[in-house]
Amino acid sequence: MKSVLVKKASGLEEPFSEQKLRNSLHKIHLPEDVINDIIFRVNRQLYDGITTRKIYKLAFNFLKRHRRTFASRYHLKRALIDLGPDGFLFELLVAEIMAADGFSVKVGQTVQGHCVSHEVDVVAVLDQRHAFVECKLHQRDAIKSDVKVALYTYARFQDILRKIQEDKPSTSAHATYESWIVTNTSFSTDAVQYAECMGMKVLSFNYPENRNLSTLIEEFSLYPITALTTLSAFSRKQLLSQRIILCRDLLLDYSLLQQAGVSPEASGRVIEEMKLLCRR
User: Fold this and answer.
1) CA distances (Å), 211 to each of 18, 89, 205, in order?
2) For the domain bounded by 88-208, which CATH number is listed?
3) What is the domain partition of the chain in residue ranges?
């Protein structure tokens, strides 16, 4: 039987992989019988030239109708894109993740280097560890953070590190300083190779395999409100404009939903989805 060709976000085509779809559904801990049902339904609607986005929508729409909480998790990658376009809300999310992991964090800091000052998206400290984090939010899944991002991030870090060592030589000798890059999509192979060679930490939606952006969001239940399938676009925009980005924050204060124009009836559905999503 001839393989169906699927068009990727990059424009390249490749044979449809049932295993890739199965793996993506396994990641959200979907029951095996539901996975099999989705794959059966997708297989019936395949055709040459179908896009990966269309396949995603087929699976997502099924989950939205029948397993709404799983739909929220499956929607997470798109939800991070929807935090854009300026990137500041993504920086806040990254800061929240690092804070949940034990770091003290500050967002949007101006840090003096040896040569010039630098705008650092997130500065995080844990004991003697000091992390300077560059956050890269892309508006399309096909866009990767390439080696140029790693090069200029490391150059800025070296300028900052030189200044620290000049000003506090005794303190800096006992501390560790780290250069991080966090992106909502992925890194090019060269970017990862360069970063790891230089001792940088890179974090993307699916990299590294164990503790990546998606698994950390799940581990700490830090789901953005853009993942919710029961929240209207208008209410979402209202909340984001107030820098309310986490479902957790809405669960702590239900009145925020009313302030964002969510009706009492709709609020009940949103709250139920958030409780299931955040396992509360």
Assistant:
1) 25, 21, 10
2) 3.40.1350.10
3) 5-69, 88-208, 223-277
